[in-house]
Amino acid sequence: MEFNINDEWLSRAERRYAASFVGGIADRVPVDPMMLAHSTVLYGHTIRDFYSYPELAVVCLAQAQQRYDLLPVTKYYFAHPWLPELGIRLRPMNYTAPVPINTIVKDPEDADKIHIPDINEIKKGYSYELLTRGMDYIKKNKRKMFVPLAYCPEPIGSAAELCGIEQFLMWTQTELDLCKKLIKAYIDTAVSGAESLAGRYGMALINTGAVLENSDTMSPETIKEISPPALSSLVKKCLSKGAGPQIFYHFCGNHKDDYALFTNKIVFTPLTIMQIGYWEREPFPSKVMKKTYGNICTIMPSVDTKLFVLKNPKKIYEQARQQLLDGKDTKSGLILGTSCEVPPFSYQENIDALVKAANDFGSLKP
Fold this sequence. Notes:
This protein is α/β, with parallel strands linked by helices. Helices cover 45% and strands 11% of the residues. It contains 13 helices and eleven strands. Strands 4, 5, 6, 7, 8 and 9 form a six-stranded mixed β-sheet that branches.
């Protein structure tokens, strides 16, 4: 499969994306359904292919971005980067991203035995190889769609994989300092990963967020204690190592009771995007995002991801319409998205409905 990208489309998409941060003339707000393996499925390949063959994945991503009229960039990534470098083994799956199959912390004393890889070890590891294969390919073959990505997934959920999520959640109630040790181990490793990518490509978009810690899994008091400090530490260290200045915060899950805990506690640059998934079981309201974050960063209100696996174009269109009408005039710009990664087997007409709503209600023309 080869790149077949229309320059006129690419220029139009570039103007939209830039207008989200710096203003200017564009036809409408951009749309980002956080697409990953749907792109390979769209072009006759498999979910597993996306995570196994980065070069194929970035071509499919670029073509899918054009097919649906989405962003002008490809952002290849996969679940659990930098965990293999800490000793976590990932098993390839046919219908999901690779999943961890072991832990390295069985007992509290094991936390003090974790080996933090240095940058040379990082460069020899699984995560660096896979990420750079994808980025090198898009940079070489379609440079205008290349944006280097310093992917450092949520520090809390990533740290939890070191001991197992159930064990970690129990320790948040009984051994919070132990949880903080695991979080720091992941942060230190992920920062070396970000440094290695920034050293190879220059400025790189920092992608992180809060997923495991949400209003369904932890109390606001526990979240306040561990999550904002972890994100602040991670991003500050990544910036100091050359990553950034663009930041994408992905807050997946229900954040009704904790969304405001981060406003003055994490790093925001002029090129920051804030995405929050749900308010209980409904998409997080763009009017609340606008009020809370719209003066300090670009917001990314979303449509319920679960709708995309059934033929729901009308409902998707209506949700997108409301999110756009409630948030389009936000001071710092808006991108229309989905609450989490658009499912691999999403119906094409559902994604088309998301984009149609942006065309109908997301105009940026004077």
